């Protein structure tokens, strides 16, 4: 069998290769076109997630066969830019703030991220700019400075800026070398891949969906029905993972700190199927403990170490709750000199050589989607689903880690080696992808009238859309239903 990107991902997930023939692809020309194999990455991530969902659903429903999985390039391409297709009462959200962009420096390029007010304030402070500085003011300040010096100065102030690097420069960088020593999907535990986070006694390991069967009243197969997911994520990758788990029937409760408001538009894109609550983890530890006491899955998306003081490191959670599935996503990984740094998809593209590859000698470029975020999000959901299947069979939990930068290195270095002749359907021979309309839907809810991308995770008998639209951020009680 040709070792395709999908097969490579499924192997890292510890899945049975005999299930791979049950995945079919609808190829469509014109989707996610780029210099790098973005389409192959997207197919593999979504396909692995759908297969993991179908496998878990078959296991819980007692089906003789795992339902067939369909990966449609149109659905995948539309979902990978879901934030661009979103409309709220006819309004298109602003995905990047004016100071989130590329800037010319004295010796190259730097990209900054300032979508959140506190990141904007730290960027301007680090550059010695006024609080009301315009893009023109910032451009003038950066034009005479070194890109690497700007990177270090802004990061030291708690802001976000990354100097443009080539793939070769990133491979030689200490963080690039550290990432190269780790797999794309990193499992912790004495058994390695799919290994237990703790013993199989007690804790979440003994529950099987709280008596809720995986079949809904209308016969839809919901593999994660009754699974409680504590969502401690922000922005795109983590919320995409938990949005996918909500699609599959999980009770997903996103918890945010009251002093870190989320962009309402971002929540409208990734809040489908979830509830959203506010909780001061310092002042209300009792409420947090009550949530953890009956959670099946905890997903974290803050920079490594940021939640440790609350007892929410993957290691602490695994030790405290044998049988718990813990999933962590970060920008740069939980190791190496950049392990504790903040980061976003756009910045990881710049650091890892993607922006240089997709650009020109005159200006850096970008992928046709925030594919590191979306791809890593679907991989994270796939890992959680596979861990839940393992828990059904063996009663143990798992700890799994993914990083946007490691996904980036798979895109730049790994996928090309996994694509042989005939390994992936030729999209040029498929149906054209002219418009995304077939994969968009309209839904009214508390946030307004939403036009949104439909989920790309599809298998026979599975859900076609989320059970509920996003509610208003932070308005649900911090307790399980």
Structural commentary:
With 481 residues, the protein is of the alpha/beta class. The chain has helices at residues 5-12, 38-61, 73-79, 82-85, 117-127, 135-143, 147-156, 167-172, 174-180, 237-247, 264-270, 285-293, 314-320, 345-351, 354-358, 371-394, 404-418; strands at 23-26, 28-29, 69-72, 87-88, 102-105, 108-112, 161-163, 186-188, 228-232, 251-256, 275-278, 297-300, 325-330, 398-403, 431-432, 440-445, 448-453. The protein has a seven-stranded mixed beta sheet with strand order 8-14-13-12-9-10-11, with helices on both faces. Strands 4-17-16 form a three-stranded antiparallel beta sheet. A three-stranded antiparallel beta sheet has the order 5-6-7, sandwiched between helices. Mean pLDDT is 91; it is low at 190-208 and 420-424.
List the strand order in the largest sheet: 8-14-13-12-9-10-11
Number of helices: 17
Q: Roughly how much helix do the residues carry, as a percent range?
A: 25-40%
If you average the pLDDT, what whole number results?
91
Q: Main beta sheet, described? A: 7 strands, mixed
Distance between the termini: 45 Å
Query: Which structural category do the helix and sheet elements fall into?
Result: alpha/beta
Provide the gyration radius in Å: 21 Å
| Strand tally | 17
């Amino acid at each position: 069998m040709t070792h395709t990107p999908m097969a490579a991902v499924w192997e890292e997930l510890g899945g049975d290769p005999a299930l791979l023939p049950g995945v079919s692809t609808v190829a469509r020309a014109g989707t996610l076109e780029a210099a790098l194999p973005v389409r192959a990455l997207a197919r593999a991530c979504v396909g692995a997630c759908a297969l993991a969902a179908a496998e878990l659903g078959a296991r819980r429903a007692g089906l003789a066969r795992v339902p067939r999985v369909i990966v449609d390039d149109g659905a995948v391409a539309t979902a990978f830019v879901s934030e661009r297709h979103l409309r709220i009462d006819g309004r298109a959200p602003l995905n990047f703030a004016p100071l989130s962009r590329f800037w010319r420096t004295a010796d190259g390029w730097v990209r900054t991220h300032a979508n959140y007010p506190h990141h904007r304030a730290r960027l301007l402070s680090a550059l010695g700019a006024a609080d009301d500085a315009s893009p023109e003011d910032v451009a003038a300040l950066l034009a005479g400075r070194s890109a690497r010096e700007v990177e270090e100065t802004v990061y030291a102030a708690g802001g976000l800026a990354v100097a443009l690097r080539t793939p070769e420069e990133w491979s030689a960088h200490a963080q690039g070398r550290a990432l190269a020593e780790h797999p794309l999907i990193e499992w912790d535990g004495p058994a390695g891949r799919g290994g237990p986070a703790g013993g199989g006694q007690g804790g979440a390991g003994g529950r099987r969906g709280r008596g809720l069967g995986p079949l809904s009243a209308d016969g839809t197969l919901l593999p994660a029905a009754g699974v409680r997911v504590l969502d401690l994520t922000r922005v795109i990758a983590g919320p995409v993972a938990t949005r996918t788990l909500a699609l599959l029937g999980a009770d997903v409760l996103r918890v945010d700190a009251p002093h870190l408001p989320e962009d309402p538009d971002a929540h409208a894109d990734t809040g489908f199927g979830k509830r959203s609550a506010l909780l001061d983890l310092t002042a209300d530890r009792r409420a947090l403990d009550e949530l953890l006491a009956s959670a099946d899955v905890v997903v974290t998306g803050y920079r490594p170490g940021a939640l440790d003081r609350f007892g929410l490191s993957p290691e602490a959670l695994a030790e405290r709750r044998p049988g718990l599935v813990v999933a962590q996503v970060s920008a740069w990984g939980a190791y190496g000199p950049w392990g504790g740094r903040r980061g976003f998809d756009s910045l990881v593209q710049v650091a890892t050589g993607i922006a240089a590859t997709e650009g020109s000698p005159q200006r850096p470029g970008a992928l046709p989607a925030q594919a590191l975020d979306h791809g890593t999000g679907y991989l994270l959901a796939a890992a959680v689903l596979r861990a839940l299947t393992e828990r059904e069979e063996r009663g143990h939990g798992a700890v799994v880690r993914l990083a946007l930068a490691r996904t980036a290195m798979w895109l730049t270095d790994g996928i090309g080696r996994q694509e042989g002749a005939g390994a992936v359907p030729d999209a040029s021979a498929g149906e054209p992808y002219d418009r995304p309309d077939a994969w968009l839907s309209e839904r009214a809810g508390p946030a307004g009238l939403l036009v949104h991308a439909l989920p790309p995770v599809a298998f026979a008998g599975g859900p076609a859309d989320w059970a509920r639209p996003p509610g208003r951020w932070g308005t649900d009680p911090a307790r399980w239903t």
